[in-house]
Amino acid sequence: MPIAYLKKASLTSRSDASDTTRIVQDILNSIETGGEAVALDYAAKFDKYDGSIVLTDEEIESASAQVPEKLKRDIEFAHANVKRFAETQKKTCTDVEVEIVPGLIAGQKSIPVKTAGCYIPGGRYAHIASAIMTVTTAKVAGCENIIACSPPRPGVGINPAIIYAAKICGADKILAMGGVQGVAAMTFGLFDLPKANILVGPGNQFVAEAKRILFGRVGIDMIAGPTDSLILADASADPEVVAADLVGQAEHGYNSPVWLVTDTRSLAEEVMQLVPQLIDDLPDVNRENATAAWRDYAEVILCDTREEMAETSDTYAPEHLTVQAEDLDWWLNRLACYGSLFLGEETTVAFGDKASGTNHVLPTSGAATYTGGLSVHKFMKIVTWQRATRDGAKPVAEATARISRLEGMEGHARTADIRLKKYFPDETFDLKAEA
After folding, report:
1. What is the reported pTM?
2. Catalytically active residues, by annotation
3. Sheet of 4-7, strands arranged across
């Protein structure tokens, strides 16, 4: 039997794409042409902030002093976990070399990018965890300059906890500027900042679009849309836990899809009853976001078998994927398309979002079919090198000359010819192309 939708979304994450591209392109063009003055104009317009743009050491210390000690300990705990996981990831970035043919050695090196720009949302919610995820990972990778950029609140500035997190995680500069203007400032090297080589971190649709447009002249972690989450649950799952996890992710925003895929109709029906009740109990802003997300974007899908459930999940390729089902090892080995995987009731997306160690900057909108999330590797350039003895170069030069001529690239062929002639003057080589 084909899968059945007990609840079908009326909208998708792409439904409200309108003139965002035009708006963002105009802002970027204006700032690139007009520089800091124009960026400050946009900051006054959108951030409604006229304080320091690049925070001084004194301002950072003052903000840090406002953070309660208990919250500082929590931030430090999360930082330690993210740092430990990132350090483990970095150990997989090893330099290697191999003798391809006798006398020809090739290798790879892992080189961190010089300057990382880390965008930290601070509008609707103060994303302290995003400071931890982005800055810590860039620091472990070995980036020489790390810029933390976060939108200030009118008359207040950046949330002190974000400032504290950015500082202890290793930010070299903290930029109080939000949205497209903040992204542009890091990219174009405004306010005496080094130009970013890579931009990372989540943001609203305007930040995401700015990163997409700038990609190429600067690296980015990924092209991101609204956050999305999928739960795979069988008859062993607790409906209340499943419902709570769906609501916990729906509160991200009005257009944040959440999906439940199950082989148990009774579980699905109970969850569908519980979710609206849990949403109604949230604070105002959270309730408004979750209500819209559940109403317009959520889906509940009924399957016959766990294989059908897994196939459905891989098709959706969710940013966050939770399994609340029996035989967790089967799911771990079977599932192939997700940003981050949470196996069993004892872990949840919020753990990964905040403090467990894995990164929460993840691919959205189906991008998990081809990429993973933010990691040390995103800040590393994997480059190659080679060297050879003259004897080692000989067979490579012969093959290069013939392949180049077959392709019609005579100039390439002659760079091989000249070496063979110089190194082996007494030998004759057949370097013609034979189609």
Report:
1. 0.93
2. 319-320
3. 4-7, 299-302, 258-262, 229-233, 320-324, 340-343
